[in-house]
Amino acid sequence: MEQTPTIRVAVVDDDPDIRTAARLALSRHVGEVVIEPRPEAVDPTAFDVVLLDMNLATGARDGRDGLDWLQRLRAADPTVSVVLMTAFGSIGLAVEAMKHGAADFVLKPWQNERLIATVTAAAALAQSRRAGVALESRHRALAASTTSPSGDIVAAAPAMLAALALLKRAAPSGANVLLLGESGTGKGVLARELHRMSARADKPFVTVDLGAVPESLFESELFGHKRGAFTDAKEDRPGRFVAADGGTLFLDEIGNLPPHLQRKLLTVLERQEVIPVGGDQAVRIDVRLITATNLPRLELAREAVFRQDLLYRVNTVEVALPPLRERREDIAALLEHFLALYARKHQQPRRRLTSSVLEALEAYGWPGNVRELQHAVERATILASDDALTVEDFPMLAAPRSATTTDAATLDSMERGAVERALAAHGGNISRAAAALGLTRAALYRRIEKHGL
Ligand SMILES: Nc1ncnc2c1ncn2[C@@H]1O[C@H](COP(=O)(O)OP(=O)(O)OP(=O)(O)O)[C@@H](O)[C@H]1O
């Protein structure tokens, strides 16, 4: 066998013949073999493998001494591989040693080939553990370097600054956070920011868009499945809860979850364990949960729409992101941010906004919120013929510009009247009033809220 110079082994046995035999067997196959009669003389960080006698105390026969030293060595260096040797081997003792973290077990007298194979495999295990630890610490350093306040989140409006301040206070606590806001208001970016500011920042951040998970795959996606659980389950697959273990799980569009799946989710959150589809073993999980929905708050408060016991589980802290039209101070700041970003991305000159274009953009309603603004700026950066952008570079400004303030007020009051009449005609029944108006219930709730009805 070829020599592997990187492997370092300590042999600890009170019997000098055993020490010599082990050294003879191993020295041609590993880089370094050190023999020691006493375990206290061994520094586990200096070795990949410690080959340790189970019965070190004179006359000891029950292996307790070896188990005790196994634990002490592993406590001093959890990455070291300890292989136990015993002349009184029994399966029971072997199992116990493995439970206490032994990499493997050899019976005396050993066959040299077996001993060499066992020690080489144990060394590979130690080396891969050490590589893993090195990787994790690099990851930690990287995460630490990015935990300063994010430069990617723009906030100038008081409502947005207040939302960010609340998020910052909630971040270290590990409390479940519910983010509310229309589509495109920034719930996704804030969820990520919350994770970055939390004690779990160097652990996984896993997102699931519940609106995009077909009902039939919900359990397998979230809780995982065992091989053979259904036709396509070719192998075991951990679900998103397990993938996020130790970190943060962000469940987006939680308001879209049908009632029977809301119940399943609630059970998992209460028990803090998941049972993969086709499995019978529960897996314990430790995740910080962030949820988000674009359902209006009033809608969410209805048991028929959303289980209130689930709501109380997920909304320990509730953060509402106002629509962009209600935080106009953010518009100019966001425009600046995206003009710089897209000029860099598309290697275009940095476009400028004249004050009249800026005013028009600030007055616009932005139904698609920040996402719409972002796309509008990207498009303008790519297509504009001049550095100074004009109203024509923003097509959404062109269409409704004929609506004057008075027209808008008239439209608003017409809408309010229609909603009031429909509600009165249907005795306040939301579903029927919504159907009569040709709206979804969520859309009707938004209008009820908007008009303060
Ligand atoms: N305050 C902000 N600063 C910078 N970029 C933002 C901000 N808010 C949102 N964005 C950007 O706008 C886009 C939409 O944001 P995000 O996906 O977080 O919204 P959302 O509320 O989660 O939307 P949806 O409900 O549709 O999932 C993203 O590209 C995001 O980077």
From TrEMBL:
<dbReference type="Pfam" id="PF25601">
    <property type="entry name" value="AAA_lid_14"/>
</dbReference>
<dbReference type="GO" id="GO:0043565">
    <property type="term" value="F:sequence-specific DNA binding"/>
</dbReference>
<dbReference type="InterPro" id="IPR003593">
    <property type="entry name" value="AAA+_ATPase"/>
</dbReference>
<keyword id="KW-0804">Transcription</keyword>
<keyword id="KW-0597">Phosphoprotein</keyword>
<keyword id="KW-0067">ATP-binding</keyword>
<dbReference type="InterPro" id="IPR009057">
    <property type="entry name" value="Homeodomain-like_sf"/>
</dbReference>
<dbReference type="GO" id="GO:0000160">
    <property type="term" value="P:phosphorelay signal transduction system"/>
</dbReference>
<dbReference type="Pfam" id="PF00158">
    <property type="entry name" value="Sigma54_activat"/>
</dbReference>
<dbReference type="Pfam" id="PF02954">
    <property type="entry name" value="HTH_8"/>
</dbReference>
<dbReference type="Pfam" id="PF00072">
    <property type="entry name" value="Response_reg"/>
</dbReference>
<dbReference type="InterPro" id="IPR027417">
    <property type="entry name" value="P-loop_NTPase"/>
</dbReference>
<dbReference type="GO" id="GO:0006355">
    <property type="term" value="P:regulation of DNA-templated transcription"/>
</dbReference>
<dbReference type="GO" id="GO:0005524">
    <property type="term" value="F:ATP binding"/>
</dbReference>
<dbReference type="InterPro" id="IPR025662">
    <property type="entry name" value="Sigma_54_int_dom_ATP-bd_1"/>
</dbReference>
<feature type="domain" description="Response regulatory">
    <location>
        <begin position="8"/>
        <end position="123"/>
    </location>
</feature>
<dbReference type="InterPro" id="IPR025943">
    <property type="entry name" value="Sigma_54_int_dom_ATP-bd_2"/>
</dbReference>
<dbReference type="InterPro" id="IPR001789">
    <property type="entry name" value="Sig_transdc_resp-reg_receiver"/>
</dbReference>
<dbReference type="InterPro" id="IPR002197">
    <property type="entry name" value="HTH_Fis"/>
</dbReference>
<dbReference type="InterPro" id="IPR011006">
    <property type="entry name" value="CheY-like_superfamily"/>
</dbReference>
<protein>
    <submittedName>
        <fullName>Sigma-54-dependent Fis family transcriptional regulator</fullName>
    </submittedName>
</protein>
<dbReference type="InterPro" id="IPR058031">
    <property type="entry name" value="AAA_lid_NorR"/>
</dbReference>
<keyword id="KW-0547">Nucleotide-binding</keyword>
<feature type="modified residue" description="4-aspartylphosphate">
    <location>
        <position position="53"/>
    </location>
</feature>
<dbReference type="InterPro" id="IPR025944">
    <property type="entry name" value="Sigma_54_int_dom_CS"/>
</dbReference>
<keyword id="KW-0902">Two-component regulatory system</keyword>
<feature type="domain" description="Sigma-54 factor interaction">
    <location>
        <begin position="153"/>
        <end position="382"/>
    </location>
</feature>
<keyword id="KW-0010">Activator</keyword>
<keyword id="KW-0805">Transcription regulation</keyword>
<dbReference type="InterPro" id="IPR002078">
    <property type="entry name" value="Sigma_54_int"/>
</dbReference>
<keyword id="KW-0238">DNA-binding</keyword>
